[in-house]
Structure formats: structure tokens, C-alpha cells
TrEMBL record:
Name of this chain's protein: Lia operon protein LiaF
GO CC term, one of those recorded: membrane
Coiled-coil ranges per UniProt: none
Top-rank taxon: Bacteria
Segments passing through the bilayer: 12-42, 54-85
Key words of the record: Membrane, Transmembrane, Transmembrane helix
Entry annotated with the keyword Transmembrane: yes
Chain ranges of the Cell wall-active antibiotics response LiaF-like C-terminal domain: 122-235
UniProt source species: Terribacillus halophilus
Length: 238
């Protein structure tokens, strides 16, 4: 069985085991995790000094102990270990740049299918921009891994382009040409934000909307919509 197949079956088993644990043992694990997250939030945002640090550490301890009581956690951990060592042994592993293919399949309704620039992924890095590619609006999501998109290698249309990225764990880096206006909608549970000169560190439960000055008047502009549970968003011009 290939490593990717093993990881997939372990994640499915983890989901089944987690549901079984909820049915057989009640919501004890969820309550523990919920209390721990609450303590972490209060310690980080509501309290300062020694009391906040103690409550923050107590929350991390409670979450950790709750996870250690769940068999589903060990299955997910095993999947992560298998993925990590499979990448170590694969010396050719690099982020893949997916090039769009415009093979079209016509139906009676005149609907055309095009392969996406990216593919959704559970694990691993994704990138676009190592070679020239033709732009198409993009909507992707992934579980763990970094995503890098360099818009210097494409030509945006004379209209509003759309880029949407949703991620659980990992960083998103978007490189924008100097002559392109940008509108950014970003949502993060915990992470850092760097949108041109605007920077925020260790943001909690943050929603931010930023737009360059000439966005409304520009003929070439891109709307970037990102959502990350834990990780960093970086939008830069190079």
C-alpha cells in the first residue's frame, strides 16, 4: 500500500474512532478541549502578566491531556509521522506547479470543463509561478502545507480576478506585481498577517479587509480571499 493510501485510511479510521468515542464515552474529550481552548483564549487576550501566562499554560495542558485520551489523536499522529518520513525518503519531492489545461468537453448546455490551476490536497506544499502560466480564477483548500502563488508569471485579465485559499495549518504567500491593485479579505484563528506594509503578529480570531488605493479604478485587479486556522498570510510585491 502506498504511503498516501495509508494516510488516507488512517484519517478515515480516526474519524470513525472519534465518533465512536463520542457515542461510547460521551462528550468528555470535547468538553476538555473546549475548556482548554477557553483558558488559552482568556489567558492570551483577557489577562496579562503572570495570571495570563498561568491560565494560558493550563489551557495548553488541558488540551494536550484531552487529546492523549483519544485514540483518534494517535491515528492522526501516526498518519503525520508516515507522511513526514515518506517525504524524507522522497528526495525529488518539490512543490508542484500545476499548469492549466484547456481541454474542453462540450455538453448540450454548452458547459466547458477546464482543469484547475491547483488541486485540493491533504498534505504537502503547492506553488504556481516557477514557469509562465495562463491565469484562471482559483478556489483551493488544503489541510497541512504551504502555498506559494507568484502572479509575476501570469497576465491577469482586464477585469477583476479572484483567488480564494482555505487552509487548516500552513502559510500562504502571494506575490503580486507592482502594477496590479489588490483587495484582500483574510480570516485567521491564530497566526500572523503581512499585507504589504501592514503587519500583525500572533493574531487571534482575526478578520481583516484591506484594499489598495486605486483598486476601484484599475482595469487589472485581483481579489484575494483567504482563510487559515493556524498559519501566516503574506502578500508582497517583488
Amino acid at each position: 500500500m502506498k504511503p498516501n493510501d495509508t494516510i488516507r485510511w488512517l484519517l478515515i479510521a480516526a474519524a470513525v474512532v472519534f465518533l465512536a468515542e463520542l457515542v461510547l464515552s460521551g462528550t468528555g474529550v470535547l468538553i476538555g478541549i473546549g475548556m482548554g481552548i477557553l483558558f488559552i483564549y482568556i489567558g492570551k487576550r483577557q489577562l496579562s502578566g503572570r495570571k495570563g501566562t498561568i491560565l494560558f499554560c493550563l489551557g495548553i495542558f488541558i488540551v494536550g491531556m484531552s487529546l492523549l485520551q483519544s485514540l483518534a489523536f494517535y491515528l492522526v499522529l501516526t498518519a503525520g509521522i508516515i507522511y513526514y518520513f515518506s517525504k524524507i525518503h522522497d528526495t525529488t519531492d518539490k512543490p508542484q506547479a500545476y499548469q492549466p489545461s484547456f481541454d474542453q468537453t462540450t455538453s448540450g448546455e454548452q458547459v466547458f470543463e477546464q482543469k484547475s490551476l491547483f488541486k485540493n490536497s491533504w498534505f504537502g506544499a503547492q506553488s504556481a509561478g516557477s514557469t509562465v502560466y495562463e491565469w484562471q480564477d482559483t478556489n483551493i483548500q488544503s489541510f497541512i502545507g504551504d502555498t506559494v502563488i507568484d502572479l509575476n508569471y501570469t497576465v491577469l485579465p482586464k477585469e477583476e480576478a479572484v483567488l480564494m485559499v482555505r487552509k487548516v495549518l500552513g502559510n500562504v504567500r502571494i506575490i503580486v506585481p507592482y502594477d496590479i491593485e489588490v483587495d484582500v479579505h483574510h480570516s485567521v484563528v491564530y497566526g500572523s498577517i503581512a499585507i504589504f506594509e501592514h503587519r500583525e503578529q500572533n493574531s487571534w480570531n482575526k478578520v481583516i479587509h484591506m484594499r489598495t488605493k486605486g483598486y476601484q479604478q484599475s482595469t487589472q485587479r485581483i481579489k484575494i480571499v483567504t482563510s487559515i486556522v493556524a498559519g501566516k498570510l503574506e502578500v508582497v510585491r517583488v
